[in-house]
Amino acid sequence: MITLALTFCAGIFCGHYTKATFLPAYSFAWVFLLLTVLSLRSIKMFNIFLLALIFLWGMASLGNSRVLPRCHIRNYVFYKDNRPYRVRGFIISQPVFKYNRTSFVFAIEEILCDSFEAKSCGKILVYIDGRYQWRYGEALALYGRLYRPFSQKGYRGYLTSQGIYFIMQIKTRECVSVLNQKRLWRLKGFPLYLKDKIEGIIFRHLSSLPASILDAMLLGEKKYIPPYITDAMVKSGTVHILVVSGFNVGIVTYVMLLLLKLTRLPKIYRFFITACSLVSYCLITGASTPVVRATVMALVFVAAYWFRREPDLYHSCALAAMFILVINPRQLFDIGFQLSFSSVISIIYFTERIKRMLHLDSLSQPALKFITNSLLVSFSAWLGTMLLVAHYFKIFSPITVLANLFIASLATLITLLGFALVITGLALPPLAPSIAATAELAIALLLRINALLVQLPAAYFYLH
Amino acid sequence: MFNLTRQERQVILFLLSAALLGLGINFLLKINPGFKKIARVEKYVTHKDLNRVSYQELLLAPGLSPALAKKIISYRNTHGRFKDLQQLKEIKGIGDCRYQKLEALFYVE
Hints:
With 464 residues, chain A is α+β, with helices and mostly antiparallel strands. Chain A has helices at 2-18, 22-38, 43-66, 155-161, 186-205, 208-219, 227-236, 246-263, 267-284, 289-307, 313-327, 335-357, 366-393, 400-427, 432-454; strands spanning 84-91, 96-98, 101-113, 116-119, 123-129, 138-147, 164-170, 176-182, 395-396, 461-462.
């Protein structure tokens, strides 16, 4: 699996730098598929042709992801096109209210301009002044100018990787007509409904700043975090705690298995329900790369447990990478993808090796063992991501290892408290305010420690 | 009394200790207002002092272009320290709408 995933990545990489188009790669892939079939009897030749086939598959996937349908909105709206457009479609994200405006992603079905009207497709980002209670799946007709995102701070590249090529800015409510139709995709609609509920619990019991931090840690929603908090965490190398990670997925698995154990259901049902709740959690958190990776890895572990096989961390990691890249090959160039996989792989690779090298397994005191383990995990993650962080954020933070010792431990506690708050908020509401108070104190402590560490001399250096 | 597994006991203990600690915090917040300083996040953690903020830090603020960030710095250099956040409105390009955004990010000591 590891070789296949690496070959697939190499294909995408090669396709990106050679600007290879879809058709040649796709044709060659068929040739190699034929050669692979013909070489079934020779293992060596079969393996060589199979790897070439996977390589070309990666190239062709990337080529295909670059091709837009003919009816795509990008083919109708031109550069510096100042005409107002009328578009029909429906909301495909949860609307967010921030800085006195509501924003959401809108899937287009029809586009109208002057006397021209056509069926269209594609996604746009919509900003409307004011607060509106529209929901996922609501069909709307919008009227406004479409413009390309500014390229400042790589924002355009980020939106393009999400399939968004245009932004529509709407000033007044009169430019929006509600079409009284719903296009709900239930698989996404239900998790978004749950997300709404959970956010309601978090924001009801905590004040706005701790709620925004907990919202990011539990649901991956970072839009409400003040920019200077994110900046301070980038400086201390602890920004990863604001991302839903494998740890959260682990907690969901643990809680689900524990709750289902009480029901005394047969094992097969328990595993099936756990797998379903993992997928739901993945959708609730917006199916970002780290969550998809962690979900696939957790599913592999649950399956391995069920089939009584020994799960392999590297193979499950490779499978998760393949799963993400087959759906969207452009994710290979996404910072989130690179940081998520490099940190996990380096934690798996370095932690045990360093432990053996320094003979740390012989430590008998549990507290000392816990501290050295935490230090080693954060050091390994730092080793794996150091170069990427330096490249993308132009920052080098020697404080990271020390900061993670305190902050990652506190973040673990806060995540546990967050899940406890959500569960009690749903099942035992009178208990929720007490747990919220503890969570708020822990978040305040975390932010204070982070602010303190960043102020230390030589805590971080800018590389430009 | 209860036939609980080790895992279940751990979960119950965690929930109870979190709830008890929270109860204590609520009590302390009521009787001692000074405790708020510890339990709540202070402004310097989330906001930046407008008289100390650097050009690079200004650029992180949403809605502030490099040109506008330069104007803020040059205003500070020519007029001296900001005495009030409202002074931001004197800078060309900062209207009520943008001021509302900046108000949520900066403070003046």
